[in-house]
Amino acid sequence: MSQESFFNNLTDAVSNERFDPYRKSFQQDELPAWEHYLWNVSLCESLYPALNCIEIVLRNGIHDAAIVNFGTTSWFKGHLKEPENERLETLSRKLQRSGVTSPTTGDLVAGLTSGFWVDLLKGRYEQILWPALLPVVFPYATKRQRSRERVYQRLARIQTLRNRVFHHEPIWHLQDPEEQHESILETIGWMSPAMLAVTRMLDRFDSVYTRGAHSYANELESIAQNWGAQ
Strand pairing partners for 126? Predict the structure, then answer.
C-alpha cells in the first residue's frame, strides 16, 4: 500500500498528462515507467551544458561577424526579413515595458531566442548574410561542411532537440541521441575549439546515457517500499 501511495503522490506532482506517455510505453507498469522518467530528467540535465554553449557561441559569432561585415553594431537595421524584424521589435517593446527605456544592442542580442539565430541561416538570408559570413562564424569547419543549407539543417535539428529538453519532453526514446549529442559538440568545435574544450569539461551525457534507466531501479524501489514508514 505504501508503494502505491508513493507512486500516486509522485504522479500527482508530475500530472497524469505528462506521465501517461511513460505508462503507455511500459504497459502501465509503474516502476520501469518512473525509471525512464527519471532517466529522461537526467539526460536533459546532462545536455544542458552543450546546448547552453552552442547557443552562446552561435549568437555571438553571428553578431560579431555581422558587425564587421556591415561596419556597425546596429546591423539589424535594414538587414532583417519580416519574421525576424518582428521578433526584434517585440523584444524591444518587452524590454521597454520592463524599464529598459533605450535597449542597447547588447540587451537585444542577449534577449533574442536561440531560434532567432538559427533562423538567420534560412534561405531568405542567402546573399544578405551568407555565404560571406560562413568562414567567419564557422572558421574551423571544412569547406564541405560549411554550406549555409548544411549548417542550417544541422542547427535546426539541434534546435528541435533543445526545445524538447527545455520543455521537459521525452528524449530517452530517440533513435540517435548519441549522434545528436556528438553533432552539438562538433558544431561548437566549428566555431570555437576553446568553447568545445570547456563544454567537454562540463559534459556528462555519455555517462548518464550509458548508465541507462535501470540504474535508478534499486533506489527508486527502496524509496517506494519505505514510503510512509517513518
Answer: 130
Whether cis (ω within 30° of 0) applies to the bond prior to 131 is: yes
* Contact criterion met (CB below 8 Å) for 59 and 66: no
Which residues, including other chains, have CB under 8 Å from residue 131's CB and lie 6 or more apart? 147, 148
User: pLDDT tens digits, residue range 103-148?
Assistant: 999 999 999 999 999 999 999 999 999 999 999 999 999 999 999 9
Helix (H, G, I), strand (E, B) or coil at 130: strand
Inter-axis angle of helices 30-70 and 148-166, nearest 10:
140
CA distance 204 to 193: 18
Rounded CA-CA distance 92/102 in Å is 9
Cell 517500499, located at residue:
225
Phi then psi dihedrals of residue 130, to 5 deg:
-120, 150
pLDDT of 46-74, one tens digit each?
999 999 999 999 999 999 999 999 999 99
Q: What angle do CA 76, 71, 101 make, to 5 degrees?
A: 45
CA 206/CA 43 separation, integer angstroms: 9
